[in-house]
Amino acid sequence: MCGIIGINSNKPVSANIINSLKKLEYRGYDSAGMATLYNGLINEVKSEGRVENLEKNSLVQNMEGTIGIGHVRWATHGLPNSINAHPHSSQNVSVVHNGIIENSTILKKFLIGKGHKFKSQTDTEVIVHLITENLKTENIVNSIQKTLKSLHGSFALGIIFKDQPDLIVGARRGSPLAVGYGPNENYLGSDSYALKSMTNKITYLNDGEFCIIKKDYVEFFSEEGTKINKKVLELSSTEEKYDKGDYKHFMVKEIEEQPNTIKNGINEYIDMSNKDINIYNFPWRSDEISSITLIGCGTAYHSCLMAKYWFEEITSLDVNIDIASEFRYRKNRFKKDTLYVFVSQSGETADTYAALDLCKQSGVKTCAVVNVVESSIARDSEFVLPIHCGIEIGVASTKAFLGQILILYILALKLALLRKDIEKSNFDKKIDDLKNLPKLVEKTLLIDNKIQSISNTFNEAKGSMFLGRGFSYPIALEGALKLKELSYIHAEGYPAGEMKHGPLALIEEGMPVVVLAPRDNYYKKTISNMQEVIARGAKVLLITNKSKDEVISENIWEKIEVESTNEDLLPFLLTIPLQKLAYYSALKKGYDIDKPRNLAKSVTVE
Ligand code: AGP
To answer: How far apart are CA 468 and CA 312, in angstroms?
Structure first.
């Protein structure tokens, strides 16, 4: 997952390229680079690490040129260093790329045979030399079309040419790409977020399309090379101002924003006075849906798993879930009466988007649950349920997770009511309980000091387990993922009842184990599982909810009690201490909390 920017202007572009790359850093941050056209030459500068390293380079500070491209990288082929950073250039062509060229090895052999010299270990470099080779016999449009046809795999490309000093070419297959329109300049970008500081007029390319961007107009072409017209969308606002404010990191800001984001989600969909749920323009009658399949990756997959429990509990629908990278290669039996729901914060995750594309090709019902409403997954689904959490910058998803499960819970309630799977009185009670959720989240956020001290034990351990049953099991998985991706310590989420079937062998003296045991139907069983790990030396952090009943607390290392509420809503509250545990663990280790190593916010490659 990388970020691309291109600017064709009547004034110098280097400063705007650098600013746009900073907005794209969430897509990849192991190296960065840019290239401009000036005095008939391609000037290329690249650096390892963050965009600020590139910005500090004196060559960038004095970079001339009114046409340029830039790139932030998340390495797929080749080490994250300045040689492998993009752009990749020959004397005549410079290219930035997001995606994976699957036939790069064969193409490289062919091009070396033609005398081309390679400098990097990347797949991208074959594109540079392929275009250079095709330009020997074809004009720009034909050489681009011919090159794209030879590439297998996915790409979003930005290309500039030494001998074409007035244009930038963009091309898309499988990785998102947008064109933006400004005063006497036009833009190319991986997504609208990179362009929003310059324009809110955007055109999205579809797979197979390419474009030629001049500073005063843009031409679009189909895969076959014929000219096509494309819509210009006007986005809601040119840019959502978003910074850390008084917080040390975006992640902790986003954790603390959760009472508001939950409130936003509730206000968007729930009519409290009439105790009803408004999902406007839902395109299907409830009797057209007899099953639901939920698909996502990472935290979004955990949202799908959480929703499965709610849908099964509240509706009579059959519910399936799948990890997107598995679903897309499975021998799926697509059903007309199944609603396929794609959960994705960014709306750009390649595996989830590929799963959506498969469903679209099969003509089945598709619905997106996303945070970015201009994203590819939102645009290409039949129906969108936005989660209204505002921009989430921290790579480790927090407010978006609670936003996703909230909207999925609301969808389950709505479908249950429409299908008469739930009594109106029970429905009304659940709506009332939801009204109090933001306040309960706010109170739960106050559990802070204890978690800071507890996090030391997790940091000193060589690994930990997170256990839960029923509604708590998806939260156990999410808590383990947060700790893994932020503190780089092994942590495993597991069904509490499954420990005796193998993983109990992992338990040793002093091993920290989080046990999620709210007083729900699974409480007693989970407490027995807790005793099993304590008996083998585990240091148990019990997370439960406040109750007048005495907690079975002998031999427990630590206990955290969240507020009590309707059992359906306890997962929201149980999540918060786990988000904070991961945050404080990483804080103590001094790791980069908003941009953990090896990760990126939007995984736009498979
Ligand atoms: C979550 O903390 C991770 N950053 C990651 O698992 C993420 O949830 C996953 O990559 C899916 O991203 P999406 O929601 O944007 O599709």
So the answer is: 18
